[in-house]
Amino acid sequence: MSLKQIHPLTRIEGASEVIVKIHKREVQELEFNLPVLRKIETLLRGKRVHIIPFIVAKICGVCPFSHQIAASIALEKALNIDAPLLASNVRRLILSMEHIRSHAYNLFLMGLQDASRLLGMDEKLLSHRLFHSGLNVIRFADQVLSLIAGGPISPGISTVGGLLKMPIIGSSINDLKRDVKNILEDMNRALSISKNLRGSKYYEIFNLERDHILITSFGRDMDPINGILKMYENVSWKELDVLEDPKDLLTKNVLTGPLARATFISLHYSLEESLPTHNLLDLYMLRILEIINALSYSMNLLRTLKDLGEFYRKSPQKKSGFGRSFVEAPRGTLIYECEVEEEVVKSIRIITPTELNLPFLKTFSRKIVERTLERGLPVEDAVENLKIAIRAFDPCISCATHITVINS
Fold first, then answer.
1. Which one of 125, 176, 247, 355 is most buried, by most CB atoms within 10 A?
2. How does strand 213-216 pair with strand 254-256?
């Protein structure tokens, strides 16, 4: 019996542990262990509604704005508030920047070592080509978030009803346009490198089987707060008008994130050349494409903000109710449910993209090890491919550990 323990599994948001038991080159068991119970929802009960968006922003260091905006929208629905268009567009802009920054972290900082192994390239050479490109992307996103949201890390803009204050746009747009041009050149170079992954000797090991359900709340115009959950199953998309209990999704083989978004966009727009969605390593290319698209989308939003007036927040129309929101975070669909009584949170439930992906991630991780061993490759290669697969998902362990899983 060969026991391989990865503790901790690094270069993801948070840390987890993976244990693989192999006997005579056959996988006997694979465990994916998350940290201990944290139960963030318990801390939120009994709080006034206007405090909630600022508390949930502390859940994740990479996606604080996704949590803040998702909580704001869910509470607005509970209190019958229709946020002003200016507030909604500022939220869209902020989420686009968060997508850009999160993808840059994953691709150019945490994923470079994996990419160098897959491509058979010298790590220093690849880092020289891409590391500084990634830093430039992150700096750009942080600059826009500081301009619009008051800071790149600790959100202080989205609240129940809209925005806390009027965002300052000023004359910075012209400077941002020049930065975007330089970033696009870097991203196109990175895109050409990512396409070489299809020639990797490990590529077929990461092929996806069509036994999963795709979930996204992405709008047809790439709107991250479209608010409609869509499911792809049996070769067709359907909108889930009624979803009695979103937690039922956690029992299914669900996949959310860039692969789901790319499949939705490809089928909706009937692209002549469909976006790559059949292999996990295609996530490298898809994240670069999403950065490129988000840059264009965000610049269009910036140009329109000054024409939307100065009405940025509305007051509650009632004091009690139930609200649910679907927001497209970088890693996939983020779900918030809130029940409010007299402007106090009675109950709240948060379902994160990592939670939705976790059943699929566990199943697919085992397949990666099995396929590597079936090809006669060393056990060490199986372990490395396993780590690459998990990091390619870009799981947020910090988000996922507000629940506990008990194996019967």
1. 355
2. parallel
Q: Buried (b) or exposed (e) across 304-315, using 16+ Cβ within 10 A?
A: ebeeeeeebbbe
- Is there a domain that residue 19 lies in? no
46: exposed, middle or buried (Cβ count in 10 Å: 0-12, 13-18, 19+): exposed
DSSP assignments along 228-241, one per residue: --EEEETTEEEE-S
Residue 60's domain comprises 45-372
pLDDT, tens digit, 9 for 90 and up, residues 377-403: 999 999 999 999 999 988 887 776 654
CA gyration radius, the chain:
21
Q: Is the dihedral of CA 123, 126, 132, 136 positive or negative?
A: negative
Structural domain contains residue 189:
yes
Peptide bond into 8 cis (omega under 30): yes
Please tell me the least confidently modeled range out of 1-5, 202-206, 355-359: 1-5
Of the pLDDT bands very low, low, confident and very high (cuts 50, 70, 90), residue 32 is confident
72/94 Cα distance (integer angstroms): 14
Tokens of residue 279, six digits: 């292999």
- Interior angle at CA 260, CA 99 and CA 100, nearest 5: 10
The answer to whether 20 touches 386, Cβ cutoff 8 Å, is: yes
Distance CA 247, CA 235 (A): 23
CATH number for the domain that contains residue 151:
1.10.645.10
DSSP annotation of 279 reads B
Q: How many domains does the chain have?
A: 1
Establish if 255 belongs to a structural domain: yes
pLDDT at residue 66 in the model: 95
* pLDDT for the residue numbered 240: 79
Q: What is the pLDDT of residues 213-236, one digit of tens each?
A: 999 999 888 899 988 999 988 777
